[in-house]
Write a structure and sequence with these properties.
The structure holds two protein chains of two kinds. In chain A, 19% of the residues lie in helices and 21% in strands. Chain A is built from six helices and nine strands, in the order βαββαββαββααβαβ. Chain A has helices spanning 17-26, 64-68, 94-98, 148-156, 170-173, 191-199, and strands spanning 3-8, 36-44, 47-55, 74-76, 82-84, 105-107, 140-142, 180-184, 214-217. In chain A, a hairpin with a 2-residue loop joins β2 and β3 (47-55). The chains are: A alpha+beta, B mainly alpha.
Chain lengths: 218, 115
C-alpha cells in the first residue's frame, strides 16, 4: 500500500475547512500551517478567475528534506508517508531549506492559543498522553503527517485506511466540495488511482524530480 | 588611441583576474565533503554556521544569488506570504541548479523530472 492524495482544484473554493480540521486534529503550532490554501488571480478584467491551491506535505517519493537532514530525523515509511522524528530533530532547518513546496515549519517557541498565555485543555496534556507525532516542542520542525496516527490505527484494527472519517486524513472528509481524495496509489481500482488516470492529475514542481504523492486536478 | 589601449588592458586584466578567482564548484564541493576545506563543524542555517560557510564563504555565492525579493503569484510555495526578514526568500529553483541529480553539488537533493 502506498498512500497519497488527489486534490481537485476545480472544486476547491477556498473555504479552508481543511486548514481548520488539520489545525484541530494535529494541534499545529499557532502561526504554522500543515495545511494551507494558496490563492491568486488569473486573467485580466473582466475575464478573471480566482485560483485556490490547497497545499500540504507532498510525501515525495524522493524527499529532499530526508536527504538534507543532518540528524537523519526524517524517514519515509513503507506506506509512503514522510515523517519527522521529534526526538532526533535538532531544529537545524535544513529540511525547510530543501523543500521546494515550503511545507515544513519550525517551532521557535512555545505559544498558546490564547494571547494571555492561558492554555486550552489540549495544551495542558503531558507528552506521554499524546500520539508521538503530536509530541511537538520548541526548536523542532513540523509538517503534515497525512494523519498517520489515524492510518496507523486503521491498519492496526484491520480497517481499510480512507474508508471512513476516522481512517482518513482530517482534511479530506471535512471538505464540503469533495475536492480532496485520499487512498492507495498501489491499488489501480482505488478512487485516487482512477482520478489520476481519468482526470490527468498533475504533480506540483515536477522539475525538482521529487515525485510528490499529492496530485492536482487542474 | 591611448584610451583604447588602457581600456583593452583593463578588460584583459579583469578577464585574467576573473579566471584566477573563479571557484571550481564541483572540486570545492568534493573537497568540503572530504573535510579538506574548513567550513566549521556546527551545522545550521545561521550566518557563521556550516550552511552559509559552505555556500557563501567556500563557494563564493553572493547573497543575491539565492535570496530574492518575492515570488510570482502562481509560484506554488506555501510560505511565500510569510515575512522572512533579512535577505529575503530563497527560490528553490536556484538550489535545483546545483543540487539536482547531475548537478555539481555533492549532496544530490533533487531528482530529475520524469518525461
Amino acid at each position: 500500500m502506498k498512500f497519497g492524495m488527489v486534490i481537485d482544484m476545480n472544486r476547491c473554493f477556498g473555504c479552508r475547512a481543511c486548514v481548520a480540521a488539520c489545525k484541530t486534529e494535529n494541534m499545529v503550532q499557532t502561526g504554522n500551517h500543515w495545511n494551507f490554501v494558496l490563492e491568486y488571480e488569473q486573467g485580466k478584467y473582466p475575464n478573471v478567475r480566482r485560483i485556490f491551491t490547497p497545499m500540504n506535505c507532498m510525501h515525495c517519493e524522493n524527499p529532499p528534506c530526508m536527504k538534507a537532514c543532518p540528524e537523519k530525523a526524517i524517514s519515509k515509511n513503507e506506506y509512503g508517508v514522510v515523517l519527522i522524528d521529534y526526538d532526533k530533530c535538532k531544529g537545524k532547518k535544513y529540511c525547510i531549506a530543501a523543500c521546494p513546496y515550503g511545507v515544513i515549519h519550525f517551532i521557535d517557541k512555545e505559544k498558546t492559543y490564547y494571547p494571555d498565555g492561558q492554555k486550552i485543555p489540549y495544551e495542558t496534556l503531558p507528552p506521554e498522553a499524546r500520539h508521538p507525532l503530536h509530541r511537538k516542542k520548541p526548536g523542532i520542525a513540523e509538517k503534515c503527517t497525512l494523519c498517520w496516527h489515524r492510518i496507523e490505527k486503521a491498519l492496526r484494527e484491520g480497517k481499510k485506511p480512507g474508508s471512513d472519517y476516522d481512517t482518513s486524513p482530517a482534511c479530506t472528509k471535512v471538505c464540503p466540495a469533495n475536492a480532496r481524495y485520499f487512498g492507495d496509489f498501489d491499488d489501480p481500482n482505488s478512487e485516487v488511482s482512477r482520478l489520476i488516470a481519468e482526470k490527468r492529475a498533475v504533480q506540483l514542481n515536477k522539475e525538482f524530480g521529487t515525485r510528490p504523492q499529492v496530485y492536482y486536478i487542474v | 588611441m591611448r584610451i583604447r589601449t588602457i581600456l583593452i588592458l583593463i578588460v584583459i586584466t579583469a578577464l585574467v583576474a576573473g579566471t584566477a578567482l573563479a571557484i571550481d564548484i564541483p572540486g570545492t564541493a568534493k573537497a568540503i565533503k572530504a573535510g579538506k576545506v574548513n567550513v566549521g563543524k556546527t551545522t545550521g542555517m545561521e550566518q557563521g554556521k556550516r550552511f552559509h560557510n559552505i555556500h557563501n564563504k567556500a563557494l563564493g555565492l553572493q547573497c543575491q544569488s539565492c535570496h530574492i525579493k518575492g515570488f510570482g503569484d502562481d509560484y506554488a510555495y506555501q510560505k511565500k506570504y510569510k515575512d522572512v526578514g533579512g535577505m529575503g526568500h530563497v527560490d528553490r529553483g536556484i538550489c535545483l541548479g546545483c543540487h539536482k541529480e547531475n548537478g555539481p553539488a555533492v549532496t544530490k537533493l533533487y531528482g530529475t523530472a520524469e518525461r
